[in-house]
Amino acid sequence: MYATSFHDDASEWQAFITGSQASCGTLYARYAPQLYNYGCKLHADRSLIEDCIQQLFLYLLTHRSHLSAVQNVKAYLVKAFRRDLLRMAAENRKQQEFPAEGFDITISPETQLISDESTLARRRKVAEEINALPPRMKEVLFLRFYENLSFEDIAAVMNIHQKSVYKMVYKAFDKLRHRLIDFPLWLAMGWLLWK
Amino acid sequence: MEWKDYAEYRQEDFLTDDYFSEWVLRPNKENNAFWEEWQQLYPSRQPIITEARKILLSLEYTREEMPAESYDRIWSVIAEEMETAVPVKKRRWPLALAAAMVTGMVAVAAFWLLRSKPVPPVYTSQFGENRTLVLPDSSKVILGPHSSLRLGDFKGVREVWLEGEAYFNVQHTAVSAQPFIVHSRSLDIEVLGTTFNVKNYTGNTQVVLSSGKIALRRQDERLIMKPGDLVEYKEKEEKYLRKEVKPERYASWVEGTLVFEDTPLETVAAEVYHQFGIRLVFRDSSLAKEKFSATLTSADQAVVLAAIKEAFSLELTQGADSTYIFTRK
Fold first, then answer.
1. Residue B325 with chain A: CB contacts under 8 Å
2. Which helix (H) or strand (E) holds A111?
3. Contact predicate B156/B134, CB 8 Å
4. What is the pLDDT of residues A91-142, one digit of tens each?
5. How far is CA B138 from CA B31, B184, B267, in A?
């Protein structure tokens, strides 16, 4: 149901813990860039994120004979990476640098090109409302709809109950719907006139 | 795909539905066919579907690309680490060649051993499994479920770090009167040939001594325990609780027996979570505070669930995966 690579992931993992070097390369190629992207949203210090990725893979490699089969490799890695990164960030607290990107949604240049004004105005409104949500809620949305993790996996990654994950998503959209109902058409029209 | 009661769905329900979001974000032949057909059957619901789709499709995120040089640099570190752990394959070689090879291999092995730091092993256990470990000094450890034990190098002081629960039977060797130390959160347990149980699932460390002698150390205080003592160290308040108990009850999990004595159900729920990885939910908060006493031999999750249900005559329903909900009748 989730991610088509789910099954090859599990067998890739099995090969990895039984010593396959190729699988180690496959897992790294598949997940290092994803973890990097996720890390950038959690923390501003790129070098810390890179260290954390290196450490995670070295850890897996040196402990692989003790690792057991995992149900969902991606969720497992995301969880471990998040935990390590937050811990390292806490240990490394130098002077507060600029904040992390966070889990804001954006409107890509491509979207801006292909959308008509009213669609765009509406999207701006959606972005504004979603981005005003609490950070944890936004992280849940990101993990659900961008990283495609199940409610159960997100609960494990963020160390919260599955029910609360579900509730957060539901609440976010419930709030959004109410805000969009109030979103007047003339505002969209306004964009047209203003252009 | 069964026909859920999608007809009753509101926009938020669609947005939290796995099958719906799969169709919007990762359409394929099968889910397309389903939703096309569904919309034709329920034309009145079409606006809601369209709206929900639009919202999901507007969840765009910027993607940060990992710089190529970082990607390569980290990979070369990993690859180098991998080289150090190349398994040796057995083959048939002519004897002379084999001898030459062996010498070569020994040399290579020695070279690697000298240059790579050995990694201390970490043993982990899954939900619902106990693992019996024999440490380098032949001490025995039974590692409880959902726990991990990291070993030091055992070259001088014998040191282990525990997360979760474990029952120790430490070898006391007169020859090497090396101390044996278990690190549990901020507490160190110094051992002098002994059997005892340690757990720190809750963040507090609880130590129960069956036989022998141990000392708890924290910074520079030392507290000597005698057999039959239970000491719990509260991390937050930084204080010790001490009482006399029957130590065998606290080590009964080793044989698969679970013992609860006036344990609040919320605490039982935490224990059961570590044991079996299942979540217990109590419908009203007064229920979570109820005290539960039972000795459950060869307890699997069904036994525990049934015992709680019977003790308070509750309704038991299964929620989403591995959540069990108790309600008062």
1. none
2. helix A109-114
3. no
4. 876 645 566 788 999 887 777 777 788 888 888 999 999 999 999 999 999 9
5. 58, 21, 34
